[in-house]
Write a structure and sequence with these properties.
This protein is 46% helix and 21% strand. The protein contains 9 helices and 10 strands.
């Protein structure tokens, strides 16, 4: 298993098909298809409203500090649109993203983390500008509402905490690594290392409030369950699950994981 602590951000997007599928796809799994157009349609009104709000702020006589703070907050919220779209694209059937380096690693699009860092920075700046407005010489803090005074402090501390978390994620492994000795990924701030001999079951499952998210579920020999979601994998869960199952069943081929394309060729073919 790789000992690198700062993985490459280079990745390759491929379209593949599993040549001989072995895993059962339940009815619940088949129904849990991403609602791309529904999500986009729901997001459009919010984008329009935020745009109108931004135009309103720039064209009306609002206190400069307040205007700057609200515009920064608006920009940070709008960053959520590409993040949501990137997460949706992670579960497209037959699409996989792998790191350009060895061993084989399924990984999410870098957009999520880059835009997330920008969004956190904008929210932090919005709070910082609001706090400065209260503390700046010659500014009457009483002129700001109590909600505003408390809110900007929450924006500053919350945004700064989120920014620190997102930046800390840049130095750890992103995605799911499959090495000759086992699996490795990060769950929040905790690294998970699972040797192949500990993997007992690999199966397709669903999660979410209405079982609308397709995932890969791993059960180890101690009956612990691990959920691998599309936002971690950046790839079609079905393809990932079939690859995992293959190397659980065929330990003699695990050394091929040091050549990602050779490893994938054992289970998939390009579309």
């Amino acid at each position: 298993m790789s000992n690198a602590t700062t993985p490459s951000i280079l990745r390759r997007r491929l379209r593949v098909r599993v040549t001989k599928p072995k895993l059962e796809r339940s009815e619940a799994y088949e129904r849990a298809k991403p609602k791309y157009f529904k999500v986009i349609i729901l997001m459009l009104p919010f984008a329009v409203l935020f745009t109108i709000f931004g135009i309103f702020l720039t064209s009306t006589p609002v206190e400069p500090f307040s205007r700057s703070s609200m515009l920064l907050l608006l920009a940070g919220v709008l960053c959520g649109i590409p993040i949501v779209l990137s997460l949706l694209s992670a579960a497209v059937p037959h699409n996989i993203r792998i790191a350009a380096s060895a061993p084989l690693r399924f990984m999410p699009t870098f957009t999520v983390w880059m835009v997330g860092a920008v969004a956190a920075l904008l929210v932090t700046l919005a709070g910082a500008v609001g706090v400065w407005a209260q503390l700046a010489p010659g500014v009457d803090a009483v002129s700001f509402s109590r909600v505003w005074q408390v809110g900007v402090w929450l924006l500053l501390t919350g945004g700064a905490s989120l920014l620190i978390y997102v930046l800390s994620r840049f130095r750890v492994l992103r995605g799911l690594e499959l090495g000759p000795s086992g699996l490795r990924w990060w769950k929040g701030t905790e690294e998970v290392v699972l040797p192949w001999k500990q993997v007992y079951v690999v199966q397709l499952a669903t999660t979410g409030s209405k079982d609308t998210v397709r995932i890969v579920e791993i059960i180890d020999r101690d009956s612990r369950k691990y959920e691998l979601r599309p936002e971690l994998l950046g790839s079609d869960p079905h393809v990932v699950a079939e690859v995992l199952r293959y190397f659980v069943k065929h330990p003699e081929h695990r050394e091929s994981l040091n050549d990602p394309h050779a490893a994938l060729a054992l289970i998939t073919e390009p579309l």
